[in-house]
Amino acid sequence: MIKLDIVNRVAERTGVPKMKAEQAVDALFHSMKEALARGERIELRGFGVFVVKPRKRGVGRNPRTGEEVAIPSGKTIRFKAGKELQAHGFSAEHDIHDTEAPSGDASAPPTPDGSF
């Protein structure tokens, strides 16, 4: 499913024009990105919880050369499924997205494009 599919479903279920549905979906995603960039927890009852957690730095390997590569510390977004999703077989906490913190500080503000 892509964003356009979500927009179409919102438009169908609410009866609003697709343009308005797209604005609503964009506003929702924008608000969620801003909240996560500030390190806030997002709880959607029945669906799940998104939490920003620090990611430790470490050492990885380049799979082609076997050379060790430093992995910087940063932030990761974790998602834990709510009870309704758990009833459909989703139960574990999952990493959603790993990002490098701009200054190595987990509380750093987002970049101008809205990313972490």
Structure report:
The chain has 116 residues and is α+β, with helices and mostly antiparallel strands. The chain has helices at 3-14, 18-37, 83-86, and strands at 42-44, 48-55, 58-61, 68-71, 74-81, 93-100. It folds into 2 domains: 1-38; 39-107, Irregular (HU Protein, Chain A). The protein has 3 helices and 6 strands, in the order H-H-E-E-E-E-E-H-E. Helix 1 packs across helix 2 (18-37). The longest helix is centred in the N-terminal third of the chain and has 20 residues, at 18-37.
**Biggest sheet, open or closed, and with what strands and sense?**
4 strands, antiparallel
Count of DSSP strands = 6
Widest sheet, order of strands:
1-2-5-6
Q: What is the H level of CATH, i.e. the homologous superfamily of the largest domain?
A: IHF-like DNA-binding proteins
Q: Write the element-wise H/E pattern from the N-terminal end onward.
A: HHEEEEEHE
**Helix segment count?**
3
Tally of distinct domains = 2
Terminal Cα separation, in Å? 24 Å
CATH fold name of the largest domain: HU Protein, Chain A
Instruction: Indicate the mean pLDDT.
Output: 84
Strand content: 25-35%
What would you report as the Rg, rounded to the nearest angstrom? Answer: 18 Å
The global form is elongated
